[in-house]
Amino acid sequence: MRTGYTRRMSLANTLIRRRRQLAFGALTVLLHLLVFDWFSGQLGRRRQDAAPAPRAPMLAQVIQPEPVPPPAAVPAPQPSFAPPPLPQVPPEPVEPADAGPQPAPAPVPDTVPDAGPGAVAGAAPGAADPASSQGAAAATQVPGGQERAAGATAAVQSQQSPASAGAAAQQAAAPAPAPQPLPEQRRYKVELPPPADITLDVARTDANGTRWSGEALLTWSRTGSAYRVGVEAGIRVVFTRVNLLTLTSEGTVGDEGFVPILMTEKRRGRAMTATHFNRKDGTLTFSASQARYALAPGTQDKASLPLQLAAIGRGDPKQLSGSIDILVGEDRDAAVFSFTVAGQEQIDTRLGKVATWHLVRPPKPGSYHSRLEVWLAPAYGWLPVQIRNVEANGAVTTQTASNIVMKEAGSP
């Protein structure tokens, strides 16, 4: 019985295998037929039929429009009456004058605080400068200083903008204004202070109460009859020092003390300006303005002014009485500075207590609005040991000597 069951199962398995083989063979034949049919279609197709034919290009033609004649001009209506002619005013005669340095356009104010010895001349912060010097560096040459004066003037000219150059060319064609006369000034007996390097501590309080601190250096040297004064001032910001002002004054020395020929001024963020003391034609001119003044004996600039006051005190202290009047040329204008003696005082410095003569220049309506004070120390050759400038807005800048190094005449 068991043998019969085994045979039946074997027969069933054989039938299943044969059915699978028949189905697999039929599927294989069907696939071959499909492949042959596809290849027969591709073999009968031409190569050029595989890619579509390119489209024919589109042609366009531009048709020029016919010109349209412009409308006829309509004549403007004529007034029924003619205006009366304006009266002709003859121009005022201008006195001929030698062409001096011509100015650049009006300066652009700056926001850098005046924390250095620019206060020596009572300049408020914001007196500015883009500058172009149109004349020679100096009419009278200084031994050893001719090249420096020409170089300073060239530096001013190199910073001139194209717009200011055009304006300066137009001004050069016009005759220079006549120099403004100034009142007669006193003559002083002078004795030059010793050449020295003066280091000063700078303390400034702005009108809004902001405080600044810094350092300034006032140096002057003499070689024969030529002198040079330099002023540098800056403020301390964290661990660095920012230079704000550089002044230079060059000229000669004589019976009237310091005789400037050229002063240059450079403030941070502004162009250099030059002030010319034209000794040959007796005029004082500026690269930053059209102002023109007649030179007076004893005329100074901002850098040489404190040293000239020292020379007057050394010449004879009795001269420090009444009003001490000195014409001072600044960066774009000039004015007579009138000093009076406020008294003799002892001031505290890093050099110790120093006996001084206290000179004051109060504000002068129409000329300058700041108060300038200078303390001269007879024990130090009458050199300035403290300078203070009180501006009209309340800002105060004080410079106090912290070190003085005397130099021999002829040393740099």
Write the layout of secondary structure elements.
Layout (H helix, E strand, L loop, with lengths): L1 H42 L102 H13 L3 H12 L22 E10 L5 E13 L2 E12 L2 E15 L2 E11 L5 E6 L4 E4 L5 E3 L5 E2 L3 H11 L8 E6 L4 E16 L2 E10 L9 E7 L5 E8 L5 E11 L6
Parallel strand pairs: 9-10
Antiparallel strand pairs: 1-2, 1-15, 2-3, 3-4, 4-5, 5-6, 6-7, 7-8, 10-11, 11-12, 12-13, 13-14, 14-15
Written description of the protein model:
The chain has one domain. Helices cover 19% and strands 33% of the residues. It has helices spanning 2-43, 146-158, 162-173, 305-315; strands spanning 196-205, 211-223, 226-237, 240-254, 257-267, 273-278, 283-286, 292-294, 300-301, 324-329, 334-349, 352-361, 371-377, 383-390, 396-406. The longest helix is centred in the first third of the chain and has 42 residues, at 2-43. The radius of gyration is 46 Å and the shape is rod-shaped.
